[in-house]
Structures are given as C-alpha cells and as structure tokens.
C-alpha cells in the first residue's frame, strides 16, 4: 500500500478536525438549552352540527318538566337552558326554588320540584280530625243517644235479679252476671265439677280468666250455699 502524500495527510487532518469541532459544538449547544420540553396535545372533541368543535356536559333533568331525561349540553350551559332542553317546566312547578343562572356540571341531576313537593300546599284536613274546623267535623248521628239508652237497658236486664250460687247456677244464669260470658261460665262449671266446689268468692281466682279485678266486679252478685 502506497503511503499518503504530505498533502493528502494535511487534508485528512483538516477533515477530522472539522468533524471533532462540529460534534463538540452540537454537544455544547444541547447542554446550553437544557432538557427538551414535551407539551401535551389537547384532544379535539367531535364537531357539532354547526361545524364547531365544542366540549359538552351530560345532565339529568327530572321532576316537573315536560320531557324528563338525559341531555347533552355545551360546556358552560345554565340551569334554565337545561330546562328548555327538557321541554320547559310544567304548570305549578316551583322553578323559583332553583338558581336558573347557575352553570350545570357534567353528571349533575336537576330536579324541578312540583307544588306539593315544595311543601307549599297544605293537604285538606281529614274527616274526624281534631284539628279540622268545627264545620267539617262529622256530627254524631241523632240515634246515638237512643242506642246508648238501649244498651244500658239491655245491660240492666241481664243483671241477675237475685244472688247467684256458682256451684248450682247454669251457664245462662252465670252469664247474667256482668263480666262473665260463655267462656268463663263454662270454665266455672268445669272447675266445680272436676276440681272442687266453691266455698268463698276467692276460690273463683283458681278459674282461668278470672283475676282480682274481675272477682271484685262479680263478687257482689254471688252467694255460696251448702252442697
């Protein structure tokens, strides 16, 4: 291999020097600028029918509106615009309880209260309610007094004309004593026939269903004769 001439060596040396200088210059400039910044790319939403690129929010409109449902509105829409999208408020709706100028948020539910929901309408008083006016209270039937008199007469007629001996009285006779019905009469008869006769009023406490109060009520109608 032939040796390079002196001139060729000089040219080669100049080329190498230029490459080294260029590489050093690039490294120096990169060091001076610092790290490369990366900026996020903002996604573009789908175009609206008008051809504009706009973001949207989704809201649920319910309550006293013509067409409750879920609606897509432009970002920055107000409550009144959401009501317009739902066909407007119904008659009697309490839109005065809403802030129609507030901005709606994505995923928000807007409920329009009706008149009765707002508590502004009082329900009519129930018949027989003590708080109802006197004119609306039901009057007792005219026959109420007669019914009470008849019941009192029947009660008086059922009372025994004389004292009753629980050891010998029949079921119907025992039932003339106030406070003794068919069940207690049957139990009294069963007790005296299967357990023992009654010698005093307190013995009736052994009969199921007769307590101290019942005994106090019936003892004045009882007598205890000899077996």
Please report which band the strand proportion falls in: under 5%, 5-15%, 15-25%, 25-35%, 35-45% or over 45%: 5-15%
Strand order of the largest sheet: 2-1-3
Give the number of DSSP strands: 3
Alpha carbon gyration radius = 52 Å
**Low-confidence runs (pLDDT<50, min 5 residues)?**
120-132, 151-159
Classified in CATH, the superfamily of the domain at 156-221 is: Photosystem II 12 kDa extrinsic protein
Query: Helical amount among residues, as a percent range?
Result: 25-40%
List keywords for this structure.
227 residues; mainly alpha; DNA polymerase, domain 1; 3-stranded mixed sheet; 6 helices; 3 strands; 8% strand; elongated
Question: What is this structure's SSE topology?
Answer:
Blueprint lengths: L5 H28 L22 E8 L5 E6 L4 H7 L23 E4 L31 H15 L12 H4 L7 H13 L17 H7 L9
Parallel strand pairs: 1-3
Antiparallel strand pairs: 1-2
């Amino acid at each position: 291999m032939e040796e390079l001439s002196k001139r060729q060596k000089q040219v080669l040396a100049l080329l190498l020097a230029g490459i080294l200088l260029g590489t050093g210059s690039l490294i120096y400039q990169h060091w001076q600028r610092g790290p490369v910044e990366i900026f996020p790319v903002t996604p573009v939403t789908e175009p609206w029918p008008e051809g504009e690129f706009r973001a949207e929010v989704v809201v649920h409109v319910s309550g006293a509106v013509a067409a409750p449902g879920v609606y897509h509105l432009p970002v920055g829409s107000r409550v009144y615009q959401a009501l317009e999208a739902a066909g407007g408020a119904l008659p009697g709706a309490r839109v005065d309880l809403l802030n129609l100028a507030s901005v709606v948020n994505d995923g928000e539910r807007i409920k329009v209260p009706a008149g009765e929901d707002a508590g502004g309408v009082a329900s009519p008083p129930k018949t027989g309610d003590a708080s109802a006016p006197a004119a609306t209270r039901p009057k007792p039937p005219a026959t109420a007094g007669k019914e009470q008199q008849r019941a009192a007469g029947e009660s008086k007629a059922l009372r025994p004309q004389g004292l009753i001996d629980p050891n010998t009285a029949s079921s119907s006779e025992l039932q003339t004593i106030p406070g003794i019905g068919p069940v207690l009469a049957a139990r009294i008869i069963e007790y005296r026939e299967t357990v023992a006769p009654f010698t005093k009023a307190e013995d009736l406490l052994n009969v199921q269903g007769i307590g101290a109060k019942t005994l106090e009520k019936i003892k004045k109608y009882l007598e205890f004769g000899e077996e």
